[in-house]
Design a protein that fits this description.
The N and C termini lie far apart (38 Å). The protein has a domain of 146 residues: Hypothetical protein af1432. It is an all-alpha fold. It contains twelve helices and no strands.
Amino acid sequence: MSAILPYQPTLQSLRSGFNAKGWLNEDVPTFLVQNDRQRAAAHCANVARAAYQLAERFGADPLAAEAGGWLHDVSVIWPNDQRLAAAEALGIEILPEERKAPMILHQKLSVVLAREIFDVRDAAVLSAVGCHTTLKAGASSLDKVVFIADKLAWDEPYDAPWHPALRAALETSLDEGCRVYLRYVWEQRDTLAVFHPWTAEACREMGVKISE
């Protein structure tokens, strides 16, 4: 119980201090701006737009994709140095790699906020939110759409190094787009804090060669 007490009031205050109207395109920006995360609000809008377009293009549910885009980063209200404690308090299963690199926990934390603050119960949407950074084995088309939308909606003033290859790959298929980004992450593994096991599993399933 002692681990939960410091964070339970935070979740309760988020509920009581925020009045959701039931429209994610209004509720998510309002929530993030109220919590001083204006940049994240703009990023979520861009991901939602990209996800909708990709879903139309590749046969996923556009509205579900848009919802996943809006919700994927709502947990950035917890700074990186608080995410491990927040995840522990909320009873989230934490992998050893996530303890080493707590930033990655934001995808799981966003699932909790999607349910508890925005009352989202669609399992497919929650799945896409929950693997938007790492992807995972057995990913649905919706999971892949939100994963790729997040990578396309790069929120820096310069082009992401993976953009040209990713855009070209999407001319072939959504899966090829995923492979291009997974390969990029594998090639950059020595510069990363961790190589997440879900990413490794997705690589193996999609035929991206990695060595253990």
